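Example record for the data management plan.
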Amino acid sequence: MFLFPISCGSLILSKPERKMVKGSGFHLDLVLSCFINFLSGLLGAPFMGPACVRTVSHTAALTITSSARGPGESPRIEGVREQRLSAFVVSVLVGLAVLLSDALNLVPKPVLFGVFLYMGIASTAGIQLFERSILMLMPVKYYPDTPYARKVRPLKMHLFTFVQMLMLGILWAVKQSPASLALPFVLILLIPLRLCILPYIFNKTELSALDGTESNLPEDEDELDFYEAAHQLPTDADHDHQS
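Corresponding structural encoding:
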């Protein structure tokens, strides 16, 4: 149960467009979480899981964006202030919240729910699944200049999005059912789906763009997409000119 939030947080933060340089720590985060929960089990303390939403929000707060941009352009990420001080201070403040229970009880619950709702929605920014879901309702001419929009045909891109949403719905249904303990096994079944079945439908270039392994930032070079490449076919006038 801890593998899913750890992997989600690490994958979101390790995207190339975030321009982080100190690595993701996939294995170290998993080992530390398992070790802490092992000690919690020995001491009778509750298990602790990674806070994926808070982690993404914390990283977004440390992200440095460009101030010089044209009208209507999204801010470009220049880097992230990668350090441990802010996370340590936040953890200390969370621990001190126990001493401030009387003051925290004065905060209305709708305000707290609103903060958590905002953090959850804000953390979805940059997740390719949500971006591609919005593209299903947009005309092709308004698609962004991203690898999954330039290198993959719209029909196949929407098919991949549908498969992802279907698998997400299955995972959610299993988690909410009495068979929720089988969620890790259902999650493992996604591996052969990705490695054995999807390559028969999508080629390597398409999977690389749709998996989010490429940077979603617009490239400087003018690379032809499949529409432009189709219009580069030689015409009769070109043949006459060459002859």
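Summary line stored alongside the record: The mean pLDDT is 78.
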